[in-house]
Design goal:
Helix content is about 65%, strand content about 5%. The chain has helices at about 10-20, 30-45, 50-75, 80-105; strands at about 5, 105-110.
Length: about 120
Amino acid sequence: MAEETYVLTQDDKNMGIVVHASSFAGYMIPFGSILGPLVVWLMKRDEIAFVDDCGRHCLNFKLSLMIYMMISGILMFIGIGFIMMGILVILDIVFTIIAVMKASEGISYQYPMSINFIKK
């Protein structure tokens, strides 16, 4: 799990925070956990390298999580999917909070359990 540290202004750090925090929109809007970070990332990725890294890491994790949730949905027919779904929700919240805290320190956080769909 490689974390990159940047020398950033407070505005750059704030945009990194917004990328990660916008993924919480998924708890209110369908696909908001992907659309929120995607919009911020697309708007700022060319201007701020830190936002580009944060956006790629966040989107890779949220897309991976979506796949894990679909697998959990299928496994609900045999019962274990309910437990897996609960664990995934808790991990999503915890990892996103950690990513927000790291972004506030100017560190690009690589989420665990993430498949690299979007590469540098």
